[in-house]
Structures are given as C-alpha cells and as structure tokens.
Amino acid sequence: MSLPSLVPEVHVDVASLPLLLPRSLRYYDLYPYSDLFSHIVSTRPGCPSWNAELEAYYQTFHPSVWVYLSIDHNNDTRALRQLRSRLGELRKSKLKREPEDGASVDELESAIKIVQLRQLDRWNKLFGLLDIRDKYIQHQQDLFPREVHYEIKKAAVRAMESTEPAAARRSLWPLFLPPPIAGLVSLRDQDVDWSKYALPDRPTPKSEDAWRDFEAAQVAHGTKGHGSSSGESGRDDEAAPLLAVPFNGARSSGLSRRLPVYFATAPLKLYRCVVTLVDFCLVYGFPTCCCLICLSP
User: Fold this and answer.
1) Which of 16, 183, 221, 229 is 20–30 Å from 172 (CA)?
2) pLDDT tens digits for range 2-12
3) What is the DSSP secondary-structure string of the chain?
4) What range does the domain containing 18 cover?
C-alpha cells in the first residue's frame, strides 16, 4: 500500500492558505481552548473569549470558506482516528505490515504525521477562528434553556458585529478554488497583500518568550521542519508533498464530488439557497455538513 493512499484528499490546499491568525492572538485567545496545542499552552476548560473584533473579522470571510475548511478538518480528524486504530492493532499483533499487502507500521506512522501537520497548519492559518467561535457559541447554548437558546445566540452574535476590519463583510476568499461569486478578494487574484486582512497582532513579552521557548524545544528535538515559519507547525521534506493531497474526486464519495458543483458553478438562485442554508447552520450552531446533506439529490 502506498503512503499517498493513506492520506485523505482535501478541498483546500493548506500550503496555499495565507497566514491570517497572528501568533499573539493564537497564544492568548485560541490555543488555550484547543487540545491540539497543549504542548504550547495549558488547555483551559470553560468558555473561550469572544468579542466584537473577532466576530467582525470572522464575518469578512465568505461562508463557503468555512464549509470547505470544516469538511477537510473533519475528514482529517476521522482519518487520524482510523489510522491510529490500525496502527494500534498492528503493534498489538507484533506484525510489521497488515495482511494482504496492507500498510506497514512505518507507512501508518508517516501518514499520521502528515495528517497531523496538515491539520495543525490549517488550524493555525485560519480554521482556528471558526473552531473557537463554535466552542463559544456551544458554551452559550449550554447555559440557557433549549427553548430560548437560538434567540439568545442570534442576539449575541448580532450585537458583536460592530468593528470594521479592512475587508468588507463576506468579501474574502483565501482559497485557490473558484470563487462562488464575482467580486470576492480571491487567492487567485494577483498582487493581493493578505497581511492587511489578517487579524490584529498584539505581541507581549510573555507571548514572545513562549514562542522562543517553543522554537528552542523544536530545534532540540529535531522537529522543526525546513522553511517552517516561527512558531508554526513544522514540516519535513518527506511530508511536505503530501500535506495538501489535491481533491480530484478519484477516491471521494459521491457527496464530496458534488460539492464543487454546488459551491463553485451553481446557478445564482441555487447559490443563494446554499448560502442561506450555510448561514443558518453557522448562526444556529448546526454542523455545516447538514447543508450538504440537504443539497444531496
């Protein structure tokens, strides 16, 4: 079994995503509420912090951006669970390779590393903003009776939409996928300075010291890959070509193959229905995959 066949395909090339979440924001407001980064900061229980500024920047991205990133993140999470299970069974059996020309221990370990790095890279660059927002909203829902939590959450989110970032609402498309509508600021556009659309960076001596300690630990353990940015997830030369296995439908489900049709080439009326459905899922806390199930023939 080849190593690429163990790594799930993705819709969004993670390597091409611009870095839009500055490290001071991640260190103070995002990492503490994700167990993916317990090696950098201590994970905190409870409700993440969320404010008008974060909500305003979140709203600058087109809703379909979050749909694509969520699908890729969930697929990687599921793949990691399956790969770890297979590796555990193989180690328990004390065999070096699965029966019938299956994967070897080395191949499973390499695939796990590749998917982990890709997941961390996606989270660091943009997906972390959605992840923490979802956790904030879920926590608010849990505080209120079931019959009123929709209205409470809707009012809270609307109240936070007050800060004006550089980009207009729903105008950013930081993906190489075809934009669903004309007029979006796209990764396909030439000479776009994505740094001006990034969330504000407010470093402190504490956060900078933490990053230096983290980088020193990476170097000491030989885990910081060539070309990785300061404080970002490292990638070695072997893993880099597989971090963004392109989506081409060859090994995908029927639903996944239809996704680009709905979001990139759908007629205007269908597109508006899709966006409305996505918005409903994002605002009211339903998984975004619900809208895809509704659209599937």
Assistant:
1) 229
2) 788 899 999 99
3) --SGGGSPP-SS-GGGS---S-HHHIIIIIGGG-GGGTTTSPPPPSPPP--HHHHHHHTTB-HHHHHHHHHHHHHHHHHHHHHHHHHHHHHHHT-SB-TTT--BHHHHHHHHHHHHHHHHHHIIIIIHHHHHHHHHHHHHHHHS-TTTHHHHHHHHHHHHTT---SSPTT-EE-SSSPPSSTT-EETTSTT--GGGGSPP----HHHHHHHHHHHHHHHHHT-PPTTPPTTSPP--TTTGGGTTPPP-SSS--HHHHHHHHHHHS--HHHHHHHHHHHHHHHHHT--THHHHHHH--
4) 4-189+249-295
